[in-house]
Amino acid sequence: MFEVLAFGLFWAAMATWLDILGTEYGKWSYPFKLNNDIQTLLPADTAVIPVMFMLLYQYTSTWKSFVIGSVISAAVLSFIFEPLFLMLGMLDLKEWSHTKSFFAFIFLAIATRSLFFFIKKKQTTF
């Protein structure tokens, strides 16, 4: 359980950090903010995205199933939720596209799982 929580915390930190970078570098913005002091969409960064990938991490036992689940999750986030946020005026894409988000989610999912497997392997050798 601790491993899955750590995986989710890592995703939350990474999603928040990348969201801050994207807004600071003008790739996208959030015209509608829950709090004017926060430039990102924190509920998505700290809850929706991490929980989605935590469930994948917990319930997939092979790389094949994880990658397939990651592709499906990336498609849902990039091609369903992002356009919905655009329609609702919650997101404004400037120098970014849904396709870039799609591939970024897949890359980050595979990289994060690889990192956690590497850490687990190193732990067992001590």
Features:
single chain; mainly alpha; two-stranded antiparallel ribbon; 4 helices; transmembrane helix; membrane; transmembrane; CBO0543-like
Please characterize this protein's 3D structure:
- The chain has one domain (2-121).
- Helices cover 75% and strands 3% of the residues.
- The chain is globular.
- Strands 1-2 form a two-stranded antiparallel sheet.
- It is mainly alpha-helical and 126 residues long.
Topology:
Blueprint: H1 2-24, E1 28-29, H2 42-59, H3 63-87, E2 92-93, H4 98-125
Antiparallel strand pairs: 1-2
Helix pairs in contact: 1-2, 2-3, 3-4
Short overview:
By secondary structure, the chain is mainly α. Helices cover 75% and strands 3% of the residues.
Major beta sheet summary: 2 strands, antiparallel
pLDDT < 50 runs, ≥5 residues: none
Given the structure, what is the number of helices? 4
Distance between the termini: 21 Å
Helices and strands: which structural class? mainly alpha
Rg calculated over all Cα atoms? 15 Å
Portion in helices: over 70%
What best-fitting shape do the alpha-carbon axes yield?
A: globular
Number of domains: 1
Number of strands: 2
Enumerate the strands of the largest sheet in spatial order, edge to edge or round the barrel. Answer: 1-2
Strand content: under 5%
Task: Give helix and strand order, one letter per element, not per position.
Answer: HEHHEH
Summarize model confidence as the mean pLDDT: 92
Transmembrane segments: 39-59, 66-90, 102-119
Keywords: Membrane, Transmembrane, Transmembrane helix
InterPro entries: CBO0543-like (IPR048147)
